[in-house]
Design goal:
The complex is a heterodimer of chains A (326) and B (287). By secondary structure, chain A is mainly α. In chain A, 77% of the residues lie in helices and 1% in strands. Chain A has a two-stranded antiparallel ribbon. In chain B, helix 3 runs antiparallel to helix 8 and helix 9 packs parallel to helix 11. Chain B has 287 residues and is mainly alpha-helical. Chain B contains eleven helices and four strands. The longest helix of chain B is centred in the N-terminal third of the chain and has 31 residues. Chain B has a two-stranded antiparallel sheet. Chain B starts with a helix and ends in an 11-residue tail after the last helix. Classes of the chains: A mainly alpha (326), B mainly alpha (287). Chains A and B meet through helix 5, helix 11 and helix 13 of A and helix 4, helix 9 and helix 11 of B.
């Protein structure tokens, strides 16, 4: 697709995304869409460290949970407004990412995966047992939603309706895509990919591998935290399960099925995996059974996900066309 | 003092079970260099298999242990053939994502087949014995003895038999092993089979002490990973020593400091090791 065509496609998708709440009034479907938006942010952020930097982070659920719990506690215990809690909680998630990254990123491959998985379990355990702060297994209740934004001419934007919540999530999704895209396309993003390709080689051309990985990890955790905050204020209730490593696995599934190392992949993966089973009303245990099977089959036959597969098909067609012309 | 010895015995029992599970994991890592995240879920399936045999067919405990080992050994070899072999030349990342798929599949399949209930494994050996004021059930003692036996048998198998030597050869140098005519495919299947059978033995031994339920595998699975990181991935003595170390850390930490945070000690130990000595006690290099 040429540059102009791509621009029109993005614009069309944006227009559809903006119109949807005017057309879909069913609360059930709106809920699914909002959840897909939140999970897309999480999947996109995981993709930065997993897809672009090549480090299998299995603690994303923990950072999502840290963002969610941090914002809930800031709002509930310190009466902070959502608009201050959001950046602060995301920064806390990012800071934890930085702290954990220092020891964990010294290791590679499987060690990093296991190390982060174990860190995730530590976080879930602490959230579950530290009842004085997190209320333990009972969970945190009554987390307030975002407060109204006053407009200069006297009126204000409120976030009481489903449609307003949807637009809020959509805004943050677009913001996340925009920021991550800018990072990925910058020189810094290239150093990320250099490390994914070959860490020794990257160091040989003067890239500080540790510093680069930490940067990618911190940014990734920051956006996972953003997803967590949106989740907390939308659902209004948090329990330790939301920090569980199964959340990390879910995010991994979204990224892998959609297409690892692409911008649209995680969003497509999330939309498919969140919406299809919900609309078909598949029971939870069968859903996981299916996810497991799909993940195995995908990784063997389509390791680059749906988007990677489509790209390969296009590449092949282009080659064939070139062949016929010559 | 009695408390100390009680916790010591508990720690040794836990350690014996961890060692067995971790042995299988470290064997598999040594050959295929993949962290088999679904190891604990095969352990869980083994517990259900022997429970099913004991409850429905009134099979003798030791016979069902043996059958569970064979069944799960075959499952392990099948999984290697179907899931891991097609991924052997792909990046390592892919094989452990496949392992996560396998883990989700096995866990939800067992939820569908067995239900979410916690089941008690009927034990013949649950009478407590008192030694110097320390109470221990015969079953717990059996876990220690049987685990020790399996560890010795495995060591003899690898060091003294021709088949075992092929496993060691592939672990040390896959290309060299292939040059002298060892089939990597067969050794991989064999290793996966043995590794999974060891987990099956551990599951059947420990099942009467704890309960049997679909998510029972995830903690031992993670603990086994902690063990092989502490011991050094791919190292057999590392897995045994690491297993007992972890069992003791947990039992003594749980007994003296806090039972609430018992599981935290294991993962705390892991983080400490990753920071200070990422290659583990017996590991050579960090991959």
């Amino acid at each position: 697709m040429n540059w102009m065509g791509r621009k029109w496609l993005i614009l069309t998708i944006l227009v559809i995304a903006v119109i949807i709440p005017q057309v879909v009034t069913n609360k059930y479907y709106m809920n699914i869409l909002i959840m897909s938006g939140i999970w897309s942010i999480v999947a996109l952020s995981l993709n930065l460290i997993l897809g672009y930097t090549g480090q299998v982070n299995l603690a994303h659920g923990a950072f999502f949970g840290i963002g969610a719990y941090a914002s809930a506690l800031l709002m509930l215990k310190l009466n902070m407004s959502f608009w201050f809690a959001l950046p602060l909680a995301a920064a806390i998630a990012g800071f934890f990412g930085f702290l954990i990254g220092l020891p964990a990123l010294r290791t590679r491959g499987s060690y990093f995966a296991i190390g982060t998985l174990c860190f995730n379990i530590i976080v879930t355990l602490i959230v579950d047992r530290w009842e004085g702060v997190t209320e333990g297994a009972r969970g945190l209740m009554g987390i307030p939603g975002p407060g109204p934004i006053p407009l200069p001419w006297g009126s204000e934007i409120t976030f009481k309706t489903m449609a307003a919540q949807y637009y809020l999530v959509l805004c943050f999704l677009i913001l996340t895509i925009f920021v991550l895209r800018r990072i990925i396309q910058s020189l810094v993003g290239r150093t990320f990919r250099a490390i994914r390709g070959n860490e020794e080689l990257a160091e040989a051309v003067g890239i500080h591998a540790m510093r680069t990985k930490i940067l990618s990890f911190t940014v990734s955790c920051f956006f996972a935290g953003v997803g967590g905050v949106l989740y907390a204020s939308y659902i209004g209730f948090l329990s330790p399960e939301i920090t569980d490593y199964h959340v990390s696995f879910d995010a991994l599934i979204y990224v892998m099925i959609g297409g690892v190392g692409t911008i649209v992949g995680p969003i497509i993966g999330t939309l498919l995996i969140v919406t299809i089973p919900e609309t078909l009303h598949i029971a939870a245990e069968f859903r996981l059974l299916l996810y497991g099977l799909i993940l195995i089959v995908m990784i063997i036959y389509l390791p680059r996900g749906i988007v990677g597969w489509v790209k390969d098909l296009k590449g092949k067609r282009r080659q064939e066309v070139a062949w016929e012309k010559s | 003092m009695v408390l100390f010895f009680q916790q010591l015995v508990n720690g040794i029992m836990l350690g014996a079970a961890y060692s067995l599970v971790a042995l299988g994991l470290t064997l598999i890592y040594g050959i295929l260099h993949i962290p088999n995240f679904a190891h604990g879920h095969k352990y869980m399936w083994a517990a259900f298999t022997s429970l099913f045999l004991v409850v429905n067919f009134h099979t003798n405990y030791w016979v069902s242990l043996f059958i569970a080992m064979i069944v799960l050994g075959l499952v392990g070899a099948g999984v290697e053939r179907l899931v891991y072999r097609p991924l052997r030349n792909a990046p390592h990342v892919n094989s452990f994502i496949a392992a996560i798929g396998l883990l989700l599949f096995l866990e939800s399949l067992s939820l569908i087949v067995w239900g979410a209930d916690f089941r008690r494994f009927p034990s013949l050996y649950d009478k407590p014995i008192h030694i110097f004021g320390v109470a221990i059930t015969l079953q717990r003692l059996l876990v220690i003895v049987a685990a020790a036996l399996f560890i010795i048998l495995l060591q003899l198998f690898i060091k003294r038999t021709w088949l075992g030597a092929t496993i060691e050869a592939v672990a040390q140098n896959p290309e060299g092993a292939q040059l002298v005519g060892i089939s990597i495919d067969r050794v991989s299947s064999l290793t996966f089979g043995i590794g999974t059978a060891l987990a099956a033995a551990a599951a059947t031994l420990i099942a009467p002490v704890f309960l049997v339920y679909p998510t029972m595998g995830s903690m031992p699975n993670l603990k086994a990973f902690v063990v092989i990181i502490i011991g050094g991935m791919g190292s057999i003595p590392g897995a045994v020593i690491g297993g007992f170390m972890l069992g003791l850390i947990e039992a003594l930490g749980g007994g003296y400091i806090s039972t609430d945070y018992k599981d935290l000690f294991a993962f705390g130990a892991l983080v400490t090791f990753l920071t200070l000595r990422p290659m583990g006690l017996f590991g050579k290099e960090v991959r």
